Amino acid sequence: MLPKKHRLKKKKSFDLVFKKGKVFFEKFLILKKLENNLKESRFGFVVSLKISKKAKERNKVKRRLREVIKNKLSQIKTGYDIIFLSKKGIEEIDFREIKEIIEKLLEKAKLIK
Predict the structure, then answer these.
(1) Domain positions in the chain
(2) N or C end of the chain: which has fewer CB within 10 A?
(3) Contact at 8 Å (CB) between 59 and 97?
(4) 3-state SS of the chain: helix, strand, coil percent to 5?
(5) Going by C-beta distance under 8 Å and a sequence separation of 6 or more, which residues neighbour residue 6?
(6) Is 54 in contact with 16 (CB distance < 8 Å)?
(7) Which fold has domain 4-108?
(8) Whether the predicted model's global pTM rises above the 0.85 cut
(9) In the 8-state DSSP scheme, what is residue 8?
């Protein structure tokens, strides 16, 4: 689980990133980032019903995404709100592939220190 200070929680925060954030695409994931003027980067994860009707499947995808980010926290630049949006097909790939996709996205978005 991500520490509380690294979680994006409020609807207002999500809406702001959706409206004004820069977008980056990779296979089954979309990354949106926006500067937040804080000392920490905060993360949000969106896994819609289009991925799976079963909450168990959607939660599994979110857990995997969170785990990759938790392990990469020390390498990610601070001062950003970042949202990961999943696309259809992510529920079928394994953890290693998800990790590679996230690494590529973070590099594209220039979020790696």
Answers:
(1) 4-108
(2) C
(3) no
(4) 45, 25, 30
(5) 40, 41, 42, 43, 69, 73
(6) no
(7) Ribosomal Protein S5; domain 2 (3.30.230)
(8) yes
(9) -
